[in-house]
Task: structure prediction
Amino acid sequence: MKQKATHTTNSTKEIFPFSLEKTITKSSGINFLYVKDNHLGNVHVVVSDRKLTVDDGTYSAGVKINSTPDGIVDYYSPDVLVTQDFFPGGMLMPGRNYNPSNYSFGWQGQFAVDEVSGVKNHYTTQNWEYDPRTLRRWEQDPLQSQFSGWSPYSTLFNNPIRMIDPTGLAPDDYTSKRDGTIEVKKTDDNFDRFSVENKDGSTTQVAQLDKIKASDGKTDLVKFPSSGAGFTRYGDEEVGGDSYVQPKVAAAIFGAVNEFSEKNPDATVQLGNMSSSTGGKPGGSSIHKGGSMSHVLGRNVDARYIRKDRGLSGVTVFDMQFDRGASQNLVNAFNKFGFKSALSHTTKDGFLLNKTTDKDIQLYNKPVHHNHIHFQGFSK
Result:
């Protein structure tokens, strides 16, 4: 029995990482979780430390007289929060799961991003995105040249019963190419270098960032700079940090900013929430700007819409200063560099940025992304 996302242990119990969970909170009276997984790391059962009292009738001398509760606890029942069984490859078995959306981890202990394709239909790890229904990654394997006999989209040598891939490739040098690809090179240093390709084919190094580990002990993170060529940050920094992303995501952001700046040299990209320094959502359990549970493991980023006057104050899609064309260029740039999903908001006259989705009323019953775009679904 083990917890999949923490390193703080106490005998057979492990402290519950509330910052990475979706709907189970401390207010539920839970102090510990017991998590049962198998040899592949598939999380099958999650049980809390709460004891549920059961009064199933009236007893006399140990014999049940009737089923009328008498106010006396007859026995305790375990508090089963989640159960989930998987087909080989990670797809949930219909009819063989209970509350799978209440726990963020599932197949091979990977983190599920339910906002992309539904509950447990999309997994994210350090260097790849995965659809368990097709047993295929979203992006081509960067090591495909070493495995010429295999599809670049295949995973686990097509043997998900035996094989696991907890991290994928972890390269250290990144060059964001003009065609939207990211060139990677593995090194032995403890920092990452980031470069962008120029119009003449030369490259310019834009950052060198130290690597840290997220609280899962596997995912590499870097702190994205607060400002640089063509970009800046908006808002106060959250407690625990709010600008940490995986290195390849950082490379994609640098590439997207470079792409956008070439088309809009007078505009500045304003970046918002990413992840905390532990890989959790920014601000911990507090309610804050951004606030989404999808802001974990350094794969997503918020950005403000572009103003017509190119000012750096916020703008909403309802304002006259909302620049539709430049904001669309921003979406196109981030999409080109791997952010295949984006949340925005519809204007009063029914306009919605192409390659974005408006789910605010459906998910929140109020405007949320009217003042910023949420880029997610990273796949490179």
